Amino acid sequence: MITGVRTVSPVDNPVASPRADARGTAAWRPDSWRSRPALQLPKYPEAEALDRVLGKLGTLPPLVTSGEVLTLKEQLAHAAAGKAFVLQGGDCAESFDGCESPRIAALLKVLLQMSLVLVYGLNRPVVRVGRMAGQYAKPRSADLETRNGLTLPSYRGDNVNAPAFTAEARIPDPQRLLSGYYHAAATLNFVRGLIDGGFTDLHQLATWNLGFVEHSELRHEYEKISRSVLDALRFIDSLQHGPADVLSQISMATSHEALHLHYESALTREVPRRSGWFNLSTHMPWIGMRTAGLDGAHVEYCRGIQNPLGIKVGPSVDPDDLLPLLDVLDPDNEPGRITLIHRLGSDKIDARLPPLLDAVKRSGRTVLWVSDPMHGNTESTKSGYKTRRFERIFTELRRAFEIHRDLGSHLGGVHLELTGDDVTECIGGARGIDEAGLQRAYRSHVDPRLNCEQALELALQIVHLHQEEAGA
Ligand code: PEP
Ligand code: CO
User: Fold this and answer.
1) Which CATH number is 81's domain given?
2) pLDDT, tens digit, for every residue of 8-21?
3) Phi, psi dihedrals of residue 193, rounded to the nearest 5°
4) Is residue 249 in a domain?
5) pTM of structure
6) Ligand nearest to the CA of 449
7) Per the structure, how many domains does the chain have?
8) Which residues of the chain are under the pLDDT cut of 70?
9) What residues flank ligand 1, with Cβ below 6 Å?
């Protein structure tokens, strides 16, 4: 976790000496995944060039620390127990060009604003996890893309190739992995600096306002909440004769899809005085829907690391697929280890979620359940924009809360694609973006994101749902 208090210690100086890993899993190594079928990985034209890059990545310092990773795991365990709520959000795909201070600060601001609303409305601490500082590799449904009769390899994220539609841009270039590392490091450095400098101190919440939201209908409700929080803070400050430190320290963790296994394993390290291996490129890697096969390389890689793991659960997953996956990835039923992120679609959640909840409950496991209401609700407009309707996103989220409640389970968080920028990629929301309005500021190279106003609206809606349930 990145907090206002330094948690980096000499323990996080990695060592290279091999030793048995704590999970006692036979024959696992950071690169044992290479013996398994590896989906969604690029084919590099020159193996030696890739090896040179991986050699360099293997010597570069870690981006996060093992202490931070374990702190997040504890916080996720709290959320699984219903004592905290997880807000995971950020770009579908970060881009190297997007690594600019205003955009990073805007994402931080919208996550902070949303979490303020959620803390206040849900009466629980919020664990913030950015899809950031490393979300540079993308799985694709199709290997090839055709435009106006020309067919080229698909764009697979800035860690692999470039989005421009030319043959040259689409050739996988291993040097991009090094760029990805440096861009992630620059992003994290800036976020750590902002947090250390007091940017996330609750006392500063008046300065988190994003200009765009100032003109929104939602402004009044948001302002009412911020005023209440400021009043409460002033009260606590006056009791303590000074600023309430504990309340003002806000932490932020990073996450990305553990897709590019060459990159992930190059940043997988042992650290002195802790057992096991850690992926130190991010706090919380997740396994994407397309690479969650039990015998595949991605599951093999993830089973051996100590990080908390997200697993995306799509509509084709049955209990018979899910339970063996949990046995492999979490043999000890360790608190905080597994976050199941269901992304089923507003039209499928009613049929697909209950059997999964039942099966996990019957297995006696404790997992953290999180709803991703974005990825099962993607559609294309006639004019060719990939979009999502706010209404469907909200419906899936509402049904997720209701189904968990009805089955005696508990939804512990949300996973969203969002940005702090004023984009027009999703249809609907308070400002009523329609199909024709998408072209004004459609910037995503991959999936459509909620803009800051739609994201804040969703946070307010989550609170309304909670209040309805509490009043029911
Ligand atoms: C994503 O999170 O951007 C993604 C591709 O999700 P999924 O694996 O659930 O399709
Ligand atoms: Co996406």
Assistant:
1) 3.20.20.70
2) 344 454 444 333 44
3) -65, -45
4) yes
5) 0.93
6) 2
7) 1
8) 3-26, 209-215, 243-250, 472
9) 92, 139, 288-290, 312, 343, 375, 447
